[in-house]
Amino acid sequence: MDDATRLFDRLRPRLLGIAYRMLGTRAEAEEVVQDTWLRWHAADRPAIDNAEAWLVTSATRIAIDRLRAAKVQRAHYTGFWLPEPQLDDAPASPEQLLERADDLSVAFLTLLERLAPPARAAFLLREVFDADYDEVARTLGRSEAACRQLVSRAKAQLREARPRYAVTPEAHLQVMRQFAEAVAQGSFGAMASMLAEEAELVSDGGGKVPSFGKVLAGGRRIAQLYLAARLRHGEAVRVELAVINGQWGLLRFIDGHLESAQSFETDGQRIVRIHVQRNPDKLQRLAAALGAAPVPRPAATAPR
């Protein structure tokens, strides 16, 4: 392995992290990294002053171009578009979970969809990857002043929608354990008591499986939805706790097939928002890692 390959392999996690947070799907992020490698392989490397900056810039610009194209496609997406969930490869400490929940959670990635591609890139480079403004400016090909303005506006856009409460990983896990037990038992009262009155559920079926085309609001309505699944499938329903995008959530299986990956926002005592990924295309990678295929698609589906 030559020095150029070793450098690229060392930076691969950073490049993949930027691309995944930009695009919200692992497959597209890996394509960005592959495209970056091809450009790196063909580049006049001796003429490059700062190889790390060159690679970050290349990956970020490729991701921006791909996100522009993706936003056109997502405008015609059936129902809500949610990011592809990913499991943590190894157990994380509470400190690591807290850090990842801030910049990797499904809720955070969903909020980033509000930003235009350059603003998203500037915000991520500065606020998540701790790049200096001169580095952000070089990466985006803009002035430092313009990049400061991009980041400032992005923070303002996200500030209103981000949670106003701080929850420790331990408190979040305790809520998830209690809710998982209530779901497993099919206890409507227990589920309803753990959902805030104003709780919301957003689901992504991608037009492949049934999902709600609007936000389902109200703790009791959401509890009824979980109860309905239990009554319909009985003992075939199984839920497991898992760290999804740096935060404890639930995986739901039906007849051994992965039916959904569910991410939760809590206030430390009750659940305030749930993001449910049901699109089989976005569950395929996760299901393969678990050795469980996604739930088979019905012959015909429609939002509900």
Briefly, what is this?
This protein is an alpha+beta fold. It has helices spanning 3-23, 26-42, 51-74, 94-103, 106-112, 117-128, 133-140, 144-159, 169-185, 188-194, 219-233, 280-290; strands at 195-204, 216-217, 237-244, 247-254, 257-266, 271-277.
**Total count of strands:** 6
Low-confidence stretches: 299-304
Number of domains: 2
Walk across the major sheet and give the strand order: 2-1-6-5-4-3
Q: What coarse outline follows from CA principal-axis ratios?
A: globular
Using the 3D structure, state the CATH architecture of the largest domain. Up-down Bundle
Overall mean pLDDT score?
Answer: 91
Distance between the termini: 53 Å
Mind telling me the C-alpha Rg?
A: 20 Å
* The CATH topology of the largest domain: Butyryl-CoA Dehydrogenase, subunit A, domain 3
β-strand amount: 5-15%
- What is the CATH class of the largest domain? Mainly Alpha
Q: What portion of residues is helical?
A: 40-55%
Largest β-sheet summary: 6 strands, mixed
Number of contiguous helices: 12
The arrangement of helices and strands along the chain is: HHHHHHHHHHEEHEEEEH
Structural class: alpha+beta
Question: How is this fold's topology laid out?
Answer:
Layout: H1 3-23, H2 26-42, H3 51-74, H4 94-103, H5 106-112, H6 117-128, H7 133-140, H8 144-159, H9 169-185, H10 188-194, E1 195-204, E2 216-217, H11 219-233, E3 237-244, E4 247-254, E5 257-266, E6 271-277, H12 280-290
Parallel strand pairs: 1-6
Antiparallel strand pairs: 1-2, 3-4, 4-5, 5-6
Helix pairs in contact: 1-2, 1-3, 2-3, 3-7, 6-7, 6-8, 7-8, 9-10, 10-11
